[in-house]
Amino acid sequence: MAEGLLRQAMNDAGKVDRFVGSAGLNALVGHQADPSACQLMASRQIDISAHRACQINSVMIRAADLVLVMESAHKIAIEGKEPSARGKVFRLGEWGKFNIPDPYQQDLAAFEYSLMLIERGVSDWVVRL
């Protein structure tokens, strides 16, 4: 959801030259986005049905100018995995000082709550990028 929203927000802001991708620390590699996530994003006219999960790796981290994560623990894990990440890993909710819970295997309400926080975080970041 975050990738789709951030990509759309960057495009809407005219920042189309930026690459936006998604990778997880414990991703189920090759799996599609959860049907609840697809449903919520489709209601915002963003199609994430082609998304396939992948694991973040050191090559991705080194290539990135900015790595946005959902939770403080993710930041710690990425910086531990790749020390060169220090200084470029931030929470999506950094400016609002909040973590975004993973709604995986939860009900639609959990996805709606996470999406609300993602939207807030994306809005905060887009004006700064």
From TrEMBL:
Enzyme's top EC category: hydrolase
Pfam families referenced in this protein's UniProt entry, alphabetically: LMWPc
Enzyme Commission number(s) from the entry: 3.1.3.48
Catalytic residues (UniProt): 102 (proton donor)
Sequence ranges assigned to domain Phosphotyrosine protein phosphatase I in this UniProt record: 1-128
Gene Ontology molecular function: any one: protein tyrosine phosphatase activity
Organism domain of life: Bacteria
Protein name as catalogued: protein-tyrosine-phosphatase
